[in-house]
Each structure stands twice: as C-alpha cells, then as structure tokens.
Amino acid sequence: MIDGISEIHPKPEERHNMPYAPAIHVEGGCDILFLSGSTTSPLYHQHPHVPEEHVLPHDIKDQTRRVMENIKTVLDARGLTWRNVVKVTKYFTDNRERDAVNAVLREYFGDWKPASTGLCVQGLSAPGARLELDMIAVVPKK
Questions:
Q1: CA 6 to chain centre
Q2: What is the DSSP letter of 120?
Q3: How many CA atoms lie within 13 A of 94 on its CB side?
Q4: Distance of alpha carbon 71 from alpha carbon 33, whole angstroms
Q5: Total domain count for the chain?
Q6: 85 FRET partner, CA 20 to 30 A, in 1, 31, 59, 102?
Q7: What is the maximum alpha-carbon separation in the chain?
C-alpha cells in the first residue's frame, strides 16, 4: 500500500499471473485526476489534425512507450508517479497486441498493478494509432 492506495487480490498467491489488479482500494481523503485518452500522437497537436504531426512508429511496443511518455508528462505536472494510477482503460485496434502492450506497461508500473479494462475498437483518432490509454489517478491530500 502507498498513501492509502492498495491492490485487492482475492487470491494473493495468484497475483503474479495477472497484469492488473482486480480492484484498487483508496482509503481516506483524496482528489481524483482523470487523464484523457492518449495515443502515440504528441500530447499537444493541432485540431483539426495536421498529418505531419502524426507520424507514428509501426511497432506496438514503441507506440505504447510514446503513449506512456505522454501520460507521464501529465502525471509529472501534478507531482504524481505511476503508483498514483488506480485505473487504466486500454483501447486496442488489435487484441493480439495485448501481451506486448502489457509488457511495456510493466516497464513503467513495475510491480504496481492498477485496475484495468481492455477494449477492442475499430479505429482511433490518428491514422496508424493502434493503442489509446486513459487513466484515473489518486492525488493524496497533503
């Protein structure tokens, strides 16, 4: 547990088999930060989209790292770490890439496993984007 945030595992002995926690318990007073969905595109880009701003890597692991770096920028701006993230929603365009995405998420989250939902979608906002993540983070009261 960190700052009143803990993973809930009905079968703790099986934790190592899961890339996420079945639930997260937040104790005490806190604020909640809802992070908008992020793709591989730059966090700040023009609207309507300008194709030159959306040159994306093809490899799903490279795409995932860029998404996570976009999200890290937001967490850093609030003085938060990956351990403050309690919920991740993953939007895949190809469910077969789920394991590769989870492998990269482990690079960032380490042994912390927030609650998670994965959905397969037909397309995302930027051509060539194959992953979008949105997250919910807890901001402990100081």
A1: 17
A2: E
A3: 10
A4: 12
A5: 1
A6: 59
A7: 49
In sequence order, which residues have a C-beta less than 8 Å from that of residue 1 and are 6 or more positions away?
A: none
For residues 90 and 98, what is the distance between their CA atoms, to the nearest angstrom?
9
Q: pLDDT digits over 85-129, tens only? A: 999 999 999 999 999 999 999 999 999 999 999 999 999 988 789
**Inter-axis angle of helices 98-109 and 60-77, to 10 degrees?**
40
Q: In 3D, which of 117, 103, 114 has the Cα closest to residue 81?
A: 114
Q: Please list the alpha-helical segments (H only) found in the chain.
A: 60-77, 98-109
Digit-coded pLDDT (tens) for 18-35 = 777 777 778 777 788 888
Within 10 Å of residue 111's Cβ, how many Cβ atoms?
9
- State the Cα–Cα distance between residues 4 and 30, nearest whole angstrom: 9
CATH of the domain at 37: 3.30.1330.40
pTM value? 0.84
How many CB atoms neighbour CB 123 within 10 A? 10
Domain with 40, as residue range(s), is 5-140
